[in-house]
Amino acid sequence: MWRETLMVRKINYGKILLVIFLTVLIWVWADLALDDELPVSGATISIAKSTNPNLWVSFDDDESSVSVDNILLKGPASRIGNARRKLNDGSLVLAFFLDAEQEGLTDPGEHPLDVLAFLKKSSQTKELGLTVESCEPDKLSVNVVKLVKKSLTVKCFDEDGIPLKAESIPSKVDMFVPGGWEGEKLTAEVQLTRGEIEPARWAPIEKRPYVELAAGQRREAATPVKIKLPPEADPRSDYFVTATLAIALSPNLQGRYKVVVSNLDAVMERIAIRATLDAKRAYELQPYPPMTLYIFDDDAQKGTEEQQREVVYNFPPEFVRKGEIELKNPDPPVVARFKLIELKLLPSATASSTE
């Protein structure tokens, strides 16, 4: 009796598992059987970077990419729903890449491309678990040009296309270009960014020359070249500026002490500077004097003892930041020798007090 009960329980569990399995299978089958569709626009097909350096592949008008609109995706409702969510949040971007060699497009000339067939076998749509039912356009022309190796003159430019004079740069570099290129077309460019120009004045830097096969389509050389720019010419010149001196006395000392500069003639000699013309003019025309001698509270503690301190040159800060003005090297700042004379000790003050 006990064995029979155990066998019944085992059979019941088996039936339950079978029912669950069949239910899941029915739901999966129903989902797969219920296809849905999703129209998508704004997809692109771009030419993949070729591993073959002597091939140049493009679409009509030498374009490296084309737009494909009205793509109709079809598949199970759940996968269409997933694709629709990704499309709405921007995470689904249909960007396809055409590898000419994989497609067998290696002979020079114009080749037709069956766009629908190309999209159907794309790994991107396969990963979505969907198929492409239709698209526009359904045909494209692919142009293949055979490139030949030629020796090109190397020239250097900045980001704005302005030529840069190089101190050292290879005169020639071998690159693959269309066979019909001759004369001035046989030029490879090296572009230096603003952040690269200054380091290149101190030591050679490596950059890959490139040619522009068509607008926005660059082909780089297989190996970089070393470029060294000459030191930048100093835009500053040497000038002399008339010297005037301001004495900045601590508020606690004002009205109590007089500052006597014993080497005033030396201090007031013309100031030799190295500056751009704009910086020199700004220095001369500013409302502040060219030099200031600062006197501090502690200076009064030294009595009538002669002290000395470097004057401060009031160079316009904006030109200092740009390195456009400084004392003519190696001129050091002028050192002023001065004494603090207490006003009540001055002869006139003594005489007045006696009277």
How would you summarize this macromolecular structure in one to three sentences?
It is built from nine helices and 23 strands. It has 355 residues and is of the alpha+beta class. The protein is elongated.
Care to describe what's here?
The protein is of the alpha+beta class and 355 residues long. It has three domains: 111 residues, no CATH class; 81 residues, no CATH class; 114 residues, RNA Polymerase Alpha Subunit, Chain A, domain 2 (Beta Complex). It contains nine helices and 23 strands.
What structural keywords apply?
355 residues, alpha+beta, RNA Polymerase Alpha Subunit, Chain A, domain 2, 3 domains, 5-stranded mixed sheet, 23 strands, disordered C terminus
Number of strands: 23
Give the CA-CA distance, first to last residue.
143 Å
Helical segment tally? 9
Overall pLDDT metric: 87
Largest sheet: 5 strands, mixed
* Shape designation: elongated
Q: What's the layout of helices and strands?
A:
Blueprint: H1 2-33, E1 35-40, E2 43-47, E3 55-58, E4 65-76, H2 77-89, E5 95-98, E6 109-114, H3 115-120, H4 123-128, E7 131-136, E8 139-158, E9 172-178, E10 187-192, H5 194-202, E11 205-207, E12 210-214, E13 217-220, E14 225-227, E15 237-241, E16 245-249, E17 257-261, H6 264-267, E18 271-275, H7 277-285, E19 291-295, E20 307-310, E21 312-313, H8 317-321, E22 325-327, E23 335-342, H9 347-354
Parallel strand pairs: 2-5, 8-10, 16-19
Antiparallel strand pairs: 1-4, 2-4, 3-8, 4-7, 6-8, 8-9, 11-14, 12-13, 15-18, 17-23, 18-22, 19-21, 20-23
